[in-house]
Design goal:
The complex is a heterotrimer of chains A (315), B (459) and C (348).
Chain A: H1 8-11, H2 16-51, H3 70-77, H4 79-110, H5 118-130, H6 133-143, H7 150-157, H8 172-182, H9 185-196, H10 200-208, H11 213-241, H12 245-251, H13 264-274, H14 278-306
Chain B: H1 2-19, E1 30-36, H2 44-60, E2 64-70, H3 73-88, E3 97-101, H4 103-107, H5 117-123, H6 132-136, E4 151-159, H7 161-167, E5 180-181, E6 187-188, H8 192-201, E7 204-205, E8 221-228, H9 233-237, H10 256-270, H11 278-282, E9 297-303, E10 317-319, E11 323-324, E12 327-328, E13 332-339, H12 346-357, H13 361-368, E14 371-372, H14 378-388, H15 396-401, H16 417-433, H17 439-458
Helix pairs in contact in B: 2-13, 16-17
Chain C: H1 3-39, H2 43-49, E1 57-59, E2 61-64, E3 67-75, E4 81-88, E5 93-97, E6 107-110, E7 117-118, E8 120-122, H3 127-135, H4 138-169, H5 175-187, H6 190-203, H7 211-214, H8 222-233, H9 238-245, H10 250-261, H11 263-279, H12 282-287, H13 297-301, H14 312-347
Antiparallel strand pairs in C: 1-8, 2-3, 3-4, 3-7, 4-5, 5-6
Classes of the chains: A mainly alpha (315), B alpha+beta (459), C alpha+beta (348).
């Protein structure tokens, strides 16, 4: 299957006129997005593409030159690109599995027929996601402080010397994962809404057949919510390429400790805003786009093997 | 159906559009925008004073409308970058005046400042009211004069008498050149070594042992002797002498005094434990980064602007900075306002600038904590501080510190400034958070990295 | 297994599942509790909490000649423990005074005062909330935020539902490419699009108004379209095809077949947008620069985050007040989560 092939023919063989009417209808429905795309996305993207072909630096505002593909050549020679992609990849290995599976498990727990006080639990697991960034930044640097943070005080009370979360190359990723998990309420809620959509009679039928909870979860819930898991997966992967906010709040663009938090998007920010290299920053942005887009296309091609849509459609 | 749809869409659009109520009055006066956030200016009393200054200025004349934009410091640099870059792209809204901002902050936007020389000449603005050296400090390498003297912030040693009393120690000297009197009555030179000794005696663990004792537990420190607060490495090392990481040929270097300094600081953190490390400094115990204000640090070397944030308990006074190799260096900060060269109305902006550093300066300096450049204005300024800090701070020390200002200034320009500064910052995090470093090897690495960073622009 | 036994088993299951959830939740909320307690402290209490009690405590003091001295529990040579005021602490001996009899001769005590227990009382600073309420114009900020969030939520729901419906149910030429493009627009980080977008809004004169924060949401948001499209595609086609055969227009099908089955997803999207609008910081900041009367709460909260002297207790207090509205909305939204199941279950 090619992603780029129009699927009109496949869906409606031999129904020419209805086809056209339907596709006109569809275009009408997606029109708002297309207008928005042109007005608010294509424009900035085009601007940054042009910018990426210049040496525009905010500190030399009067000297803007077109330098062709020099920035792109520079990209492949920039040692920090490797460093930042490495950091991003390392972090992905730790955080991606958790970002995919934990929301499902949590949503299953919060959807369990055996859980009393569901609504309260759902609210409380969602609350941290609503906490404003300036507040959670303080909360986390306080909670994970080596000397006086609650996590280490707790560990100390059971006789474990707590790690140096924020300043050790070995512990910074676990720390970032912990902070990330705190915002799990978002993915949990999406998964939960997926579970809510599973027709109840499917479960009833399975129960009549004597299927255990695990079997029902494996054979009904998981396939039925696979579109939502797919959504979480795609967004998590894109989110990793764009990973910025948490490390930036904790460490700024420094990459401390030892460049471990110099993720690709932080490198981009640093070039564009700290070093004022707007031209090269735009280049990094376009490379980020190309890399993430390639991975996204790949994810979409895998989806036909494991994502199940009740409507019978395929991606 | 489609019409219904359209109505829905346009209804929302129109509703939202109606919200955009902007005055569509034809304005004759020039609008000048003043952007605050790169340095001081974000605290409530500062915001209030700045707003009052804007109002007073607008009431005083009708040719210029002054508008103020106050942005939180954390995002001020990004905001200004965005404004300048979009201005260049034709969406012109970059502010006209920025500040107050120090040397270091203004280096971030080097290349964007208006040379004031032509306007000074055409308006006949009187430069003789300033110390010529102070004026020259705003001259760029290319000869452009980009600022005028406004606020001066000498540095000195803040200390907590109560903690000295508790330790049975004498206070640090409040006169430059005076010795320090040890508990046994002997007089020693007030130098960095003495500061280290006294600092260790003022560093106490939870059991009441001080850092000179064998029983001292460095894992349970509850009070520290010394901190060089809110300075970057070039500021720390300037306690040991004024210098620069750039030598006369434009190459990277590290002067011996600064090597001594970083060894002193590193050992102070990890061997002698009288200086908090990064994790301790960020903990709630040391007020999450504002160490001296927590009351848990006996001495803090920093500037006059720290009166902003020293805290509400008035148990502090100020003293002389110690010497190194017989020389005292009290680094100096000077903040001012600058005009961006993208401004449409340079004359109007200059008029505002001279108003801010002239008529409005008493109001502004009082809230920024900046010492007036003009000596005659100083007594009133310190009297204002005494109203806030009733314990009776010996401000003579602050004035005396001016004589020991660092030259070259610790924020002296470097080739490829922003990248070089970033590399120096990484060194600071490293030594403040990592025990067991070979500090001399790290310093050698720093110099060679700086050299490559300098070379990026030379070659 | 009889009915009684199965009820017993059910109860046991419920108890253990709920207990597990409680344990998980307490670990999960630990940082939040830390932040909440901070909102009830003053700066000195935050410093004291670093090594002492996690609660907002204040030391008892005795005021003698206008100076307040802290009170400690002092073990005396005779074995009794007395509550005395420390008037002069030294390293290995200290001077105390009996607060009940301040004129008596001060008591010289051998030992280290740091090892003594200070007499504390529970002293939450409710005043923090009053201080931030007065320091920040909450009614204005809340009103602004509500308005921005509500217009945005209306815009994003209408447009995203339409677009998602288009993608989920219609044979559009080049649909896969278009949809990938839609997902692709999520990729570009905001830092990149910021400058051109700002320049664009500035040229059309929208800066200084709410328009840049509201209007783009009327043109569908990629996150929401993707999520809704995923959801719509899990809905079997039989129902809408039946409706179409009965002559219903596509919009009719959307309104009476698709949307009623999709409330959980729609409510999720609405909720996300409100939370997003509540916490979105940088864009409101730069688009509403110099217009404090139009700024939302996210920008207002930042006012306590000064360059040097952070006020963590005030930041936390502001955050807690600001949370009230999204929390209420969430509680309200939960009703729809329950309803979603029923509708889907019955109709099929």
């Amino acid at each position: 299957m090619s992603i780029f092939s129009p699927d009109v023919a496949r869906d409606f063989p031999g129904e020419g006129t209805l086809d056209k009417r339907k596709s006109r209808m569809g275009i009408l429905f997606i029109l708002p997005w297309i207008i928005g795309l042109v007005a608010f996305t294509i424009l900035p993207m085009g601007a940054s593409l042009i910018l990426s072909l210049t040496d525009y630096n905010l500190n030399t505002p009067t000297e803007i030159n077109f330098i062709g593909l020099d920035n792109y050549v520079n990209f492949f020679q920039d040692p920090i690109v490797g460093v930042s992609l490495g950091a991003t990849l390392k972090f992905a290995v730790i955080s991606l599995p958790l970002a995919i599976f934990l929301p499902v498990l949590l949503a299953a727990l919060l959807n369990s027929e055996f859980l009393a006080g569901k609504r309260l639990f759902r609210l409380l697991f969602y609350v941290p996601y609503m906490v404003p960034v300036v507040s959670s930044a303080y909360i986390w640097s306080g909670t994970l402080n080596t000397e006086t943070g609650w996590v280490n005080r707790l560990l100390e009370s059971i006789g474990i010397a707590g790690p140096n979360w924020m300043y050790s190359i070995d512990w910074i990723y676990p720390a970032l994962v912990l902070i990330g998990l705190w915002g799990i309420g978002n993915a949990m809620l999406i998964t939960l809404s997926g579970m809510q959509g599973v027709p109840t009679e499917l479960y009833e039928a399975a129960r009549v057949d004597g299927a255990s909870y695990l079997r029902r979860f494996r054979h009904i819930t998981l396939p039925m919510i696979s579109p939502v898991i797919f959504y979480n997966l795609v967004l998590s992967v894109i989110g990793l390429f764009r990973y910025f906010e948490t490390p930036f709040i904790l460490k700024g663009p420094t990459g401390d400790p030892g460049n471990s938090t110099l993720f690709f998007n932080i490198h981009l920010y640093k070039e564009a805003f700290t070093f004022k290299n707007m031209g090269y920053g735009a280049t990094l942005a376009w490379m980020l786009f190309l890399m993430a887009f390639t991975v996204t296309i790949f994810l979409f091609t895998t989806s036909k093997y494991w994502v199940y849509y009740s409507s019978g459609d395929k991606d | 159906m489609n019409k219904k749809l359209m109505r829905l869409g346009f209804g929302g659009f129109a509703l939202a559009a109606a919200l955009a109520v902007g005055p569509v009055v034809a304005q004759e006066p020039v609008t000048v925008t003043w952007f605050v956030g790169l340095g001081a200016g974000g605290q409530p009393e500062q915001i209030e004073a700045q707003n009052a200054v804007v109002e007073a200025f607008n009431a005083s004349q009708s040719d210029i409308v002054l508008e103020i934009q106050i942005v939180d410091n954390e995002v001020a640099y990004d905001t200004l970058s965005t404004l300048i870059a979009s201005g260049a792209a034709g969406g012109g809204q970059a502010p006209d005046i920025i500040g107050p901002v120090g040397n270091d902050g203004s280096n971030a936007f080097a290349g964007n400042y208006l040379d004031l020389t032509p306007i000074i000449e055409s308006t006949g603005y009187d430069l003789s009211q300033f110390d010529p050296a102070a004026v020259e400090s705003f001259r760029q390498v290319d000869g452009a004069l980009v600022g005028l003297p406004f606020a001066t912030f000498p540095s000195f040693l803040y200390f907590r008498p109560g903690l000295f009393d508790e330790a049975g120690l004498n206070y640090p000297p409040q006169e430059y050149g005076a010795p320090y009197v040890m508990p046994d009555g002997t007089e020693v030179e007030w130098n960095m070594e003495t500061l280290r000794e006294v600092g260790m005696m003022l560093t106490v663990d939870a059991n009441g042992n001080d850092a000179t004792m064998e029983e001292f537990d460095p894992e349970a420190v509850e009070q520290w002797g010394f901190v060089s607060q809110w300075n970057e490495p070039r500021g720390h090392s300037t306690l040991f002498g004024a210098s620069s990481v750039v030598d006369e040929n434009g190459d990277a270097q590290l002067p011996q005094a600064w090597t001594d300094a970083f060894n002193w600081f590193y050992n102070g953190i990890w061997e002698d434990h009288f200086i908090p490390n990064a994790a301790q400094g960020g903990s709630d115990l040391l007020a999450a980064g504002n160490a001296f204000s927590s009351g848990r640090v006996a001495m803090g070397a920093t500037h006059l602007w720290y009166t902003c944030c020293v805290g509400e308990t008035n148990d502090w006074d100020i003293a002389a900075l110690p010497s190194h190799n017989g020389v005292v260096t009290a680094k100096l900060h000077g903040d001012s306002f600058r005009i961006l060269n993208s401004t449409d109305a340079p004359e109007a902006a200059f008029e505002v600038l001279t108003y801010l550093i002239g008529e409005a300066s008493p109001t502004l300096l009082a809230v920024y904590g900046g010492m007036p450049v003009n000596e005659a204005d100083q007594p009133a300024f310190f009297a204002g501080l005494d109203e806030r800090f009733t314990q009776g701070v010996n401000w003579d020390v602050a004035v005396a510190s001016l004589a020991f200002a660092d030259s070259p200034n610790h924020e002296y320009s470097m080739p490829n400034y922003l990248k070089a500064k970033d590399r120096i910052g990484a060194f600071q995090t490293l030594y403040e958070s990592t025990p067991g470093l070979d500090i001399d090897a790290e310093l050698a690495l720093l110099v060679s990295d700086l050299q490559s960073i300098f070379d990026e622009v030379d070659g | 297994m009889n009915a009684y036994q199965s009820r017993q088993a059910r109860l046991g299951m419920t108890a253990s599942v709920t207990l597990f959830a409680c344990l998980l939740l307490s670990a999960f909320l630990l940082p939040f509790v830390y932040g909440t307690l901070t909102a009830f402290k003053d700066k000195d209490q935050i410093v004291a909490s670093a090594t002492g009690s996690i609660f907002p405590m204040t030391g008892e003091t005795a005021t003698i000649d206008g100076t307040a001295y802290p009170i400690y529990e002092v073990p005396m040579p005779d074995g009794t423990v007395r509550e005395l005021a420390l008037i002069a602490g030294r390293r290995n001996d200290s001077t105390f005074i009996d607060p009940a009899d301040p004129t008596a001769t001060p008591i010289e005590w051998e030992g280290r005062w740091r090892q003594l227990e200070q007499v504390m009382f529970f002293d939450p600073k409710f005043g923090n909330f009053g201080e931030v309420w007065n320091g920040v114009n909450f009614p204005l900020l809340l009103g602004n935020t509500m308005a921005i969030a509500l217009f945005g939520v209306v815009g994003t729901l209408i447009s995203s539902i339409l677009v998602a419906y288009g993608f989920a149910r219609f044979p559009i030429p080049g649909k896969r490419l278009l949809f990938l493009l839609l997902v692709g627009t999520i990729i570009l980080p905001r830092q990149v699009t910021l400058v051109p977008t700002y320049a664009f809004f500035s040229i059309i004169g929208w800066t200084g108004t709410w328009l840049p924060l509201i209007i783009p949401h009327f043109f569908a948001n990629a996150y929401n379209v993707f999520l809704l499209r995923q959801y719509f595609m899990t809905l079997p086609r039989d129902l809408d095809e039946a409706a179409m055969i009965d002559g219903a227009s596509p919009l009719r099908v959307l309104l009476s077949v698709i949307i009623p089955q999709s409330w959980p997803a729609i409510v999720t999207v609405g909720l996300f947008h409100i939370v997003f609008a509540w916490n979105d910081y940088f864009e409101p900041l730069i688009y509403l620069l110099g217009k404090p009367e139009l700024q939302p709460i996210s920008v207002g909260i930042q006012r306590f985050n000064f360059i040097y002297d952070q006020q963590p207790h005030l930041i936390q207090a502001t955050a807690i007040i600001g949370l009230a509205v999204p929390v209420l909305l969430f509680i309200f939204a939960q009703r729809f989560f329950m309803r979603g199941v029923v509708v889907t279950g019955v109709e099929k």
